[in-house]
Amino acid sequence: MRNRYLDLLRAAATVRVVVYHSTGWAALTVVFPAMSVMFALAGSMMAASLDRYGPIAVERRLHRLLPSLWVLVAVAVPVMLLGGMAWDWKVLLWFFPVEDPPAEGFWLEGLAAMWYLRDFLWFVLLSPLALPLFRRFPLPTLLLPYGALVVITLSGATPHLVVRDLALYGGAWLLGFAHHDGLLSRDALVGRGGRFGRGGRPTRAGKPSVLARYRWWLVGVLGTTGAVWALTHPGPRGLDLNDIPLANALWSAAFILVALGVAPRIAGRRTLTVLNSRALTIYLWHVPLIIMVVRVAEATGLPVHGWVGITWRLAVVSVLLGIVVLLVGWVEDLAAGRRPTLVPGGSRRTVPVSPAPAGAVELARSAP
Predict the structure, then answer these.
(1) pLDDT tens digits in sequence order for the chain, 368 residues long
(2) 196 φ, ψ (degrees, to nearest 5)
(3) Residue 132 domain flag
(4) DSSP assignment, residue 196?
(5) C-alpha separations of 182 from 16, 126, 210, 262 in Å
(6) Domains in the chain: how many in total?
(7) Residue at 124 is within a domain
(8) Which domain range does residue 175 map to?
(9) Are 35 and 59 in contact (CB under 8 A)?
């Protein structure tokens, strides 16, 4: 059974990302740290997949992720090559972007959000090793990415972008593991030593995990520390957490502990189904559409900034996204093994069967 609350969080994160990239409002990164929430939700789903399918879960997850990317690549890469981009073997990375592939012209900005897929691929590939390690040593494993980020920040080191992002978002992914294993809820009891059986469930009843018992203390410490660091180390755009990695990680951890530490009952809504079934398509295409709308506005003299500019741009981007979702969103259905539909969540029609007359039933029984 689907967890509609997690669907709600994923849908809210998707909408928040589109609104943030359309408006640039830094406050949104504080009110709802969407990227960390998306990584945490993905980590929880990855742990569930590994428990159910084993290492083959990696292939299944990639199978759901890559086809939608290839649709965008089939448009962007030929356009860039025809526009004069030099051929290089790194262009092939667009089909499996474990490192940033080359981009030029319009697509240099339009594909800027591809870092999420790059990091997602790395987390998926590392999860078969990370999940057993997390279950054997939960707290040390969880502290590792945060400790690495502190060292990177305080030393001023400039590691490879993948290494930096594994430190920045690795904690969120591992908190997703913790959510799947029930470590964020006081209702889930963990045996001595935090031992887990098959499916990541506790092997014997004991007491709530450390994360559950001290959750509100951790929320206070992490949130306060993240806020203080952000206020004393603002980035080029002020308090935009995307520019302040350490504050981003700490504040996001506090947010995730609150958001995933509860499990309210959410009624099913078709809007949630559509947003979740098309979340990847929306993410992949929203930045190119935003860039396109902004360039058209600048070329025609239409307002870009202020409430008027933001309102009409957001409306146009939403309409264009709806069109793209109708055109190529069904690829997500194929990748997930579902029957492709234009708009997910529709009820299946069944043909009512009228009861046969009693006489016909008796006649059928007496037939040879």
Answers:
(1) 568 899 999 999 999 999 999 999 999 999 999 999 999 999 999 999 999 999 999 999 999 999 999 999 999 999 999 999 998 899 999 999 999 999 999 999 999 999 999 999 999 999 999 999 999 999 999 999 999 999 999 999 999 999 999 999 999 999 999 999 999 976 654 543 344 444 445 444 456 788 888 899 999 999 999 999 999 999 999 999 999 999 999 999 999 999 998 878 877 678 898 999 999 999 999 999 999 999 999 999 999 999 999 999 999 999 999 999 999 999 999 999 889 999 887 654 444 444 444 444 343 333 33
(2) -125, 145
(3) yes
(4) B
(5) 27, 21, 11, 11
(6) 1
(7) yes
(8) 4-180+214-268
(9) no
Tokens of 311: 């309102």
Sort 172 into a burial class: Cβ within 10 Å, 0-12 / 13-18 / 19+.
Answer: buried
Both tokens assigned to 301: 């003299």
Number of neighbours of residue 309 by Cβ within 10 angstroms: 15
Sign of the CA dihedral with 358 first, then 360, 363, and 368 last: negative
**Structure tokens given for 38:** 């998306």
**Can you read off the two tokens belonging to residue 33?**
């740290």
DSSP string for 113-141 = GGHHHHHHHHHHHHHHHHHHHHHHSHHHH
> Looking at the domain assignment, is residue 36 inside a domain?
yes
The pair of structure tokens assigned to 287 is 């930045």
Whether residue 108 is contained in a domain is answered as yes
How far is it, in rounded angstroms, from Cα 110 to Cα 55? 34
- Report if pTM > 0.85: yes
